[in-house]
Structure formats: C-alpha cells, structure tokens
Amino acid sequence: MSSEYQKKVVSLQRQMGLTMENTFLRKLPIGVQDFESLRNDGYLYVDKTEQIHRLISTGRYYFLSRPRRFGKSMLISTLKALFEGKRELFEGLAIASKPDFKWAKHPVLHLDLNTNKYDRQEVLEQKLGESLSQWELQFECPRPDLPFGMRFENVIKKAYEKTGLRVVILVDEYDKPMLQAIGNPKLQDDFRSILKGFYGALKSMDGCIRFAILTGVTKFGKVSVFSDLNNLRDISMSRKYHDICGITEEELKSVFKPEIEELAEENHLTIDECLAEMRRRYDGYHFETSVQGIYNPFSVLNTFAELKFGSYWFETGTPSYLVYLLQKHDWNLEEMSREKASAEVLNSIDVDSTNPIPVIYQSGYLTIKDYDTRFKTYTLGFPNEEVEEGFTKYLMPCYIYRKDDNKSPFLIDNFVNDVESGNTEQFVKRLRSLFADTPYELVQNLENHYRNVVWLLFKLMGFYTQAEYHTSDGRIDMVVKTPKYCYVLEFKLDGTAEEALAQIQDKNYTLPFAIEDQQIVRIGINFDSKTRNIDKCLVSSHAENS
Hints:
single chain, 42% helix
C-alpha cells in the first residue's frame, strides 16, 4: 500500500470519526452479522438507519425477501439493538438525530432459522421448542404442555405484562425449512402446518406487539405460511425500501472511496474503469422499476478484501433447490433468462406451482430488467456477470454426465478454439461425445434437453448467444456470434439435417446479419431420439455479407 494512499485513507477515516491504532487499515465486515459487535469492534457500516427509521415509524408488521448474503441478518440485528435501546451504538448514524424515536428497552423475541438443516420434522420442532423455552424462562411463563402457537402467544402476553412495553418480534430466514423441503411434499406440508400455527400469534396478539418483521429468501403464499397473516406488509418490491439491504452506487462511491482507489491501483485501472468493472460484475439487482440498481454487498466486500474481481457470492452456496425445480418442470433455460411475469407471480410462491421463476427471482438469480406499464408485466434477466457465469457453470454438470471427467473431451477451451476458428466439424464431434455419456434417466424432454445443453455450452464459452431469435419469417433456434463468425443454428428431432439447413435458407434466417462483419455459417443439426444423440449435421458457409 503506497504512502500516498495511506494518507488519503487516514484523512477520510478521520473525517468519518473512525479511531483505530492503525487508521489506514479499515475493517471490512465480511461475515460479520451482529450489529453490536460490528460497531464496538470498529468495522465499516453502511448506514441504513434512515430507511429503518422510516420503516418503524410508518407501520408495525412487515415481510422482506432478499437473496442470501444480502444483509438481511444485519438488518435484523440492527433492529434488535435499536429496540433494546442501545443508543450508544448508533452515535453518528442517521437515526440518532431523530427526535421522534423513543430509546426504550423493549422485550425483543429474535428467532433465527438459518442455523439448522431441516431434513426432519423433529428438527424444526426442536428449534422452535428451544427458542420458546428460552423466552419462557426469561419472562417466567413456562407452558411446555401447550402447542407452539399458544406458547408463543403466552410469551408475547407475559413479556408485555412484565416489562410494560410492547414486544418486538424479529424472524430471520423464516423460509429455510420450506426451501430445504422442496422435493419432499410430505415434509414441506408438515413444516407449513407447524409454522402457520406458530406465526399466527403475530395476528392474535396484535395489542401486545410494537413491531414485527419476517425476512427470508422467498415468500410462500396461498395456502402456505402466509395465508392467515394478511396484516403483514410485504416491502420486497417497495420503492421506498429497495435499498434497505445491499449497497447503492452512491454508497459505494462515498463509503468505500479508499477501497476503490486501492482496487483500481492494484488492478492497473482508472477509478472510472474500476467502477465500471464493479458495476458489470456486482450491480444490477432491481427490486422495483425505475430505481437504481443494488450491488451485492458480499461480493463487494470480498473484492475489496482480496483486491481482485471474483465470483464470491455464487461460490458460497449452490442453489440445489433451483436446479431441482428447473429439471423437474423441464424448463427452457434460455427462456428463463428473458422471462416475463406479473407482480403477483413474482411476489409469492405456490408450493404446488410448476413455475420455478418466482423462486429463481426471489433467490436473486434473476432480477427486474424492464416493466411494461400497459400489460403490467416485468421482464427478467440475470442481474450481472457474476450471477450469469456462476449459474451457467453450476447448471452445466446437472444437464450432462461424464464417465471420466479427467479424460473428458468436454473442455470449454477446446470448444472455444473450435468455434472461434470456424472448425464446426470438430465442434460437432465434441458435442456428439458430450451427448453420448448422458444417461437415459437424466433426460425427460429430449428436444428441450438438447437446446438447454447447447445454450449452456455457448454461454460458458462467453459468446453472444440467443435462442429463439425472432425474424420476420420465423424463429431461429439459436444464433451465436464470435468476432469472426455468426453461426445460425437450426435443430430437428427425428427429422433430417437437410430439412434443418433448408429451413435456414428458405426462411432467409441469415438476412438480419447480412450487414455485419462476421462470416455467416449455417448449421443444421438433427437429433435422433433412439440413439439419443446427433444423427447428422450439415454446415453451409457463405460470405453473403462481403
């Protein structure tokens, strides 16, 4: 770290009122989810208390869904410290100057469901039982003979009576049991029944409650956990609270100015180039229309700590439940990346639905890209490069199978070389080998499976790829562009490669690309359902744009 850079950091930290033995060593809160320890130990904090003050001043019951590692636990912890009256922790923050906020020590019931693996009904029952027993001991009201919901009601009532102050209820990752039971209808139904009765106390004990919020990745609706909680205000897609978690562009530039300068210096970039790279990789989450994008905080902090750009968020967890839904319902992956949906679809998950899009959106793998005011529909897409790359890399092994990965001809760099050099014959050979090892039980709809694998493959290679490309005379199955070539591909199942190639020519599929610089290559591929592989491939290359 250069001495000039250290001086800048020291100066900025002093302006921010930070005092540490080594002032230039700023502490980034990676993995720190407790607000009190964050403040006491001198970690950086992106001040969200202005939004929090608005939240607690204008309502009582809330629900918020955000992707994992997006700051939900820190939000809950901040609310806990706030309602416990720990004013000293908030010195210098926005809420400290609000005269209307009363710094009273409310009884706080904090339930964190993120710490267990819910593979059996007993695990959830034990978790709820332990939390209730702890609260019953604290407020001297043991009633282990009652159902969970009634015990919760009794705790709320007794806490209010003993302290004289209404209760604050904070639930972190309420949906963890439900998500882990996807694919097990019986277990999910058991979890739903238990949680529905437990959370029902939020409505029945309204007079004893000062504030309550449930957070999670997803929102299960209809006959699920929320069916009776019509007093909860869902702020997941609220314009007022779109930035209550995560990092905005303004916050990135102001709070992390020294880190941006050091990252730029380390990677030989200008400040503007560094910000553009951050934006491309980690920005782009939109939880409403016409609002600024939000950066993934986990990726931002890790980038500054490691001084290099990486896929930090995606590498911390694998979305196995998402892959299960995509494969179970045989979803077209390319369509998923440009899906259209209504607010009703995005806001709630029906456990019996065959549509995986709400889960994928709420989990953060898709985000809002556009909104049609006439038809009231949202267009979705990947939020940024980190998510797109990570998701496609994770999906590919789930759609193919290799007997021996160590000797596999399926290597991305080989495919890239073939496509970039125009060696379509070798590319098809590799593709045929790829399909040869796919076991029968892995594939449901053959045609959709082939499209998904080819689309994933080209996306992983980093080329421009678009399936179902619309023209004035039809739809091209796939278009792939490299600096030198524009590939126009048509697929057939149990037809002929000649028919596929003829369709490209007869419908003038290459016409939209005639004015571009690349050489156009037409490829007709026929898949055979009996051999479950490529039957024949025909290639026609013609420099019609020269």
